[in-house]
Every structure is written in C-alpha cells, then in structure tokens.
Design brief:
Helices cover 44% and strands 23% of the residues. By secondary structure, the protein is of the alpha+beta class.
C-alpha cells in the first residue's frame, strides 16, 4: 500500500486533501481546510522529481502558513461565533410575571406566549414578592427555570 502511494504521489495528496475536507466539514473550525489546500498544491508539486520527504516538509510549511496567516482573516469575515440556543436567546428579554415570585417560592413568567417557571436571585428577604404583572428581565436560564431580576 505504501509503495502504491509512493509511486502515485498525486493520488496520495488527493486522498490527504479529501480527508482534510471531510474533517473540516464535520468541525467547521477553519483549521483542516488549510491542510486540504496545502495538499492540493502538493498534487501539482508531486508531479516534479522532488523527493517525498521534501514534499512532506513543503506541505507542512504551506499548510501552516495558510493556517497562521489566512485563518484569522476568514474567521473574521465569516464571523464564526457560538450560536445561541433557544434558551440562550431569552437572556436579556423583558418579560411579564404571570404568577408571583418570592424568595422562597418559584413563580412563573410568560415568554413568547409560553409560561416558564421563574425565580429571582436578588430578593433581599423572604417577605419580598414580585407581583403578577410586573415587568422583569431574564438574566439566566438554569435547567427549566428562568432566573429574573427587577
């Protein structure tokens, strides 16, 4: 098998490129795509009489250069950021209390027509209550409970 690839280096570099593209499509982190680009360059370089060890070194140099110098540019252009989940998108929303919330008992809020269990972390004592109809802000989601503040 190794002899086959050493005798058919363009095929070897095409396989490396394919593997890198497959890994990149699964991770979407803009890392292995540059090694795939380096492998594409090596397909053409492998048609020269350059020994394999020098091709391998050239592949690593080209791929690392692409990774170091072009990844940050593409990362900014594509704005790859963590995608907010449905629960994460609720944080910061102003909502109305539908059932009173006290320091000792959870209440409820309505968000987009859906009722959520809610508690308030910043109530000073057990006698304080956030009455129904009061507008509050969602500050966190812990499990199925929305944490709110006045």
């Amino acid at each position: 098998m190794i002899d086959f690839f050493l005798q058919h280096l363009p095929v070897f570099w095409l396989v490396v490129m394919g593997v890198c593209i497959i890994i990149e499509s699964m991770t979407m982190m803009l890392t292995t795509i540059w090694f795939g680009c380096g492998a594409l360059v090596m397909v053409f370089v492998s048609m020269t009489p350059l020994p394999f060890k020098w091709q391998l070194l050239l592949f690593v140099v080209i791929s690392l250069a692409l990774l170091i110098f072009t990844r940050p540019i593409f990362y900014k252009k594509l704005k790859l950021k963590k995608q907010a989940t449905n629960a994460d998108s609720l944080i910061g929303k102003k909502v109305v209390v539908s059932q009173p919330i006290s320091a000792l008992e959870k209440g409820a809020i309505k968000i987009n027509g859906i009722e959520w269990t809610a508690s308030c972390a910043n109530l000073a004592d057990s006698s304080q209550v956030i009455a129904a109809g009061t507008q509050v802000t969602v500050t966190d989601i812990q499990g199925a409970t929305a944490i709110v503040s006045l």
